[in-house]
Amino acid sequence: MNLTLLRRSRQTLDIFSPGFAETLAALPFEQREAADSPVVQWFKERGPLGLLVPRSSGGLGATALEAMHVQVAIGALSPSLAVASTMHQFSVASLVAVALKGAGADALLLAAIAQQRLLLASGFAEGVTGGGILDTGMAAVPFKDGVRLSGSKQPCSLGASLDLLTASYSRDTPAGEELMIALIPPSAPGVTQHPFWANHALAGAQSMELRLEDVYVDKRMLFSAGLKARLGDVQTIGFIWFELLISAAYLGACLGLAEQAMASQRWSDQQRVELGCQLQFGLGALEGAAHELDRGDVDLQDQLARLLLVRYGLEQQLVRASDLAHQMLGGLAFIRSNMGSQWLLSTRGLQFHPPGRLGMSTNLDIYLRDATFSIANGARS
Distance from the CA of 60 to the CA of which of 44, 139, 284, 370 falls in 20 to 30 A? Predict the structure, then answer.
């Protein structure tokens, strides 16, 4: 059975990466999601790697709506790959935003990503435990011709296959702290990989710890994302892309689970329609957010605030929908296979990605009371 709600997403994936869905589907789910899964390598070799690289730079030039549907389609087949590839795609989108601002990332870098199929792992502005969303885990020692970085990125998806790590760090300027992006090859002296991910859910994302010990980065591979105190367009666009695509990845995972449940033809048609209603609600919300990003004529801070509200609402919706779908699979499916349980767990990771709902409650509460939103230092009136 093919779930109708997935039709547009699957058609979009097939446009940008013909046959890729069939390649994934040919491998049993348990193998797709295992720690030694080949799906990330397949994505690197034949998947929509250049999805968000502009056509002028040799990429596929997808719109936000198309990219959102691609992530939904991948999530319905391999939640691990959907989450992992989100880290690549939003990193690319952030670099495109940097290039458009003329901050040093030129078309040659974007062309290399598309034409050489370079896989980017994200260490950009993901926050550190107990810190703010723009706090980084990297210590930087500046030099005239570059910088030396030390720190840790954990977990780091795509850790076994990445070509470049997009690490973030802060530097002092006369105008205040500036958020910087450093592009680092995993072969650079001082970069080491360490086991980190112990959960069977999403194990195929190649999540591990990357440690940097006095890693030198040439100034040609350093780019500014703007001041931390005044969240600029580059940072905001990066957050918007991340929230949109990571939400799509987990919605796709839930749609994939629902497809399995509906194929079993258990329970009543009313209950199956109830499940469909919950999933279409989330799909419609993300489509609306993607349309708005494609239009490009809205206040970015306002858009980010409303997208966060969509994401946090979707977190709750996915809990209800995935629980219902898992119940529909039935007790025998639960007893005979780990597939349903692993798929269920794979729909729950959205709540663990930054920024967490509780941490943003004050910011969003002030925003809802007719104020300007800021993800960095709280909303301001």
Answer: 284
